[in-house]
Design goal:
The protein is α/β, with parallel strands linked by helices and 199 residues long. It is built from ten helices and four strands. The protein is elongated and about 65 Å long.
Length: 199
């Protein structure tokens, strides 16, 4: 059965039909928002931040730094000077902690990214609010640090009683009830951070 599921793909029409197939107007799907959802709203992606930090490191540490280095040149320099992670999957956390060693520095950096005056929920977030208004989806999971989804309900939603419940502490996430009629936003980065620290 699992092999068949791996090979199974659905069309856009299938997706609309599945989401619309519900009982008593109760949503039976949730949505996971991850990296990239906020790029069109003015927030840099993890990949963009990694490239930014790599370039900064290269320019700071390389005595004969090229003004316009290629990606290969940067990668080679960082690797040769032990300024690259052993595991390529840990690039974001490695370079983030290299550039901002203290947790407070990292928190301030994230806050500055989120509070930038150019950051504003995009049309995609407005669409998510409408999907929730129509009760197709009422649970959102997000790994993003920003609060754009929550802000969107205050900007685009004209039904005041639909303001979402936001869960961001691991204790609250683990005890939250999915049966509430309110829209729920689970901010998973807090939980993931604590799980990583425990490893």
């Amino acid at each position: 059965m699992f092999n068949k599921l791996k090979e199974y793909t659905i069309s856009q029409n299938d997706l609309f039909r599945f989401i619309n197939n519900r009982s008593a107007n109760i949503a039976n799907f949730s949505m996971l928002l991850g990296a990239g959802c906020s790029i069109s709203s003015g927030i840099m992606s993890a990949n963009q931040l990694v490239n930014k930090w790599k370039l900064e490191l290269y320019k700071e540490k390389c005595i004969n730094a090229n003004d316009s280095p290629s990606n290969e040149e940067i990668e080679s320099f960082l690797k040769d000077n032990s300024l690259a992670p052993d595991n390529i999957e840990n690039q974001y956390s490695f370079y983030f902690e290299t550039r901002y060693p203290l947790e407070k520095q990292r928190v301030i950096f994230i806050e500055n990214q989120i509070d930038n005056e150019k950051v504003c929920p995009s049309i995609g977030y407005a669409c998510l609010v409408e999907i929730a208004q129509k009760k197709f989806i009422d649970v959102f999971f997000t790994t993003n640090f920003d609060d754009l989804l929550n802000e969107s309900f205050y900007i685009f939603d004209n039904q005041e009683h639909r303001r979402p419940l936001v869960y961001f502490e691991d204790s609250k996430i683990l005890t939250a009830s999915l049966n509430s009629s309110r829209i729920k936003i689970f901010k998973l980065h807090e939980l993931f951070s604590k799980l990583e620290m425990a490893e």
